[in-house]
Write a structure and sequence with these properties.
By secondary structure, the chain is α/β, with parallel strands linked by helices. Helix content is about 40%, strand content about 15%. It is globular and about 60 Å long.
Length: about 375
């Protein structure tokens, strides 16, 4: 009987986000007879993917959030958890806090210890205390990690430094999810869409400003926002105040994102910052043109002639004008063309699974 290697993934919660979705894509495609995933999340945090994880044979562990308890207390409980379970590898996804996680993993003699950077910023003010904390955590990461992964060059430099031996691991997707859908034909009814957490960094207010300008010229235009988060109430209030409730659909968290994206005429992504912006990869996989902020890493462009960058210093009106031009561009690439580029740039989950299986086994 073959031995099953258990890999512990560390997240705050297993909700729908770029990193979480990427790991779930890998998990579904993994040979779970030889490698099984477990997850450590913050206590009291239920996640969108929890039931699927259990159905796939994974376990979900919980510890009190380090934001709600002392770090040394968290480390003590974590070390006990690691010693009481036989993990072959630990894959840590929190930003700089991976330092504490991997230090405990080294003490517990877990042979494969991965720090994975998914963003270029943790969104917090750079106070002296914060800078000291980040510097200390980075030292712990470099001392205890066996592998440094990032979703982009910028995300890797942000956490590990420019000279670190960082492996850029593409946030791969299941290509079969996109092979089954057809490219949405252009119509007289313009549909502008966005997928992402309702958080200030996603810049939903600017999205709505751009959409408002488009509506002046195209009164039948509609917008679709997929996701949830702390800013949703503010967005709902803005829509009510501007009489746009009927024109902007809030779909919440969805599991059929490929199908939804395929119905967009344009994917609008004005983020203030991103580690990568994986939903732009998904939009390209669906053959949808994208208008994204220049704060998004350039690696997001898979050379399909679908991604267009624009500065957030430009007005919402100029973004609307650019959006109109993009929508009226040439025909979109075929599935064969898209599949070729997705595989060439490393976004086929089947290829990433083979690589990660070897890493988790310590090869």
């Amino acid at each position: 009987m073959r031995m099953t290697n258990r890999v512990l993934h560390v997240f705050r919660a297993m909700n729908v986000g770029g990193a979480e979705t990427m790991i779930m894509n890998v998990y579904r495609a993994m040979d779970r007879q030889t490698i099984q995933f477990d997850f450590l999340v913050d206590k009291g945090e239920s996640g969108f993917y929890d039931q699927e994880i259990l159905d796939l044979g994974g376990r979900i562990f919980q510890l009190p959030s380090p934001r709600m308890s002392k770090i040394l207390s968290y480390r003590k409980e974590l070390l006990m958890l690691l010693k009481n379970n036989q993990f072959s590898a630990i894959h840590s996804h929190p930003h700089s806090f991976s330092g504490i996680i991997l230090e405990a993993a080294e003490k517990a003699k877990i042979p494969v210890r991965i720090a994975h950077s998914h963003t270029t910023s943790d969104g917090r003010k750079a106070t002296l205390v914060r800078q000291f904390y980040q510097s200390f955590m980075k030292r712990l990461i470099h001392k205890n990690a066996t592998h440094l992964f990032s979703c982009s060059l910028a995300a890797g430099e942000s956490l590990f430094g420019r000279d670190a031996e960082t492996i850029v691991l593409a946030n791969s997707i299941n290509l079969r999810d996109y092979e089954r859908i057809s490219v949405h034909p252009k119509s007289d009814t313009m549909v502008i869409g966005h997928v992402g957490r309702f958080d200030s960094v996603k810049n939903h207010p600017f999205f709505l400003e751009v959409f408002s300008h488009l509506r002046k010229k195209y009164p039948q235009a509609s917008a679709v926002l997929v996701g949830d988060g702390p800013e949703k109430t503010n967005i709902q209030a803005w829509l009510a105040n501007n009489n746009l409730q009927d024109s902007v659909k809030l779909l919440g968290i969805r599991s059929d994102v490929p199908t939804i994206i395929s119905q967009f005429d344009l994917f609008l992504f004005p983020s203030i910052y991103e580690g990568l912006g994986n939903v732009v990869i998904e939009a390209q996989a669906a053959g949808v043109p994208c208008l994204v902020s220049d704060a998004v890493p350039k690696e997001i462009n898979l050379a399909m002639n679908l991604v267009n960058f624009k500065s957030l210093q430009d007005s919402a009106e100029s973004w609307a004008e650019e959006a109109e031009k993009i929508i009226n561009k040439n025909p979109r690439p075929s599935w064969d063309e898209r599949k070729l580029k997705l595989k060439r740039f490393g976004y086929d989950v089947a290829d990433n699974v083979k690589y990660l299986e070897n890493v988790y086994r310590g090869y």
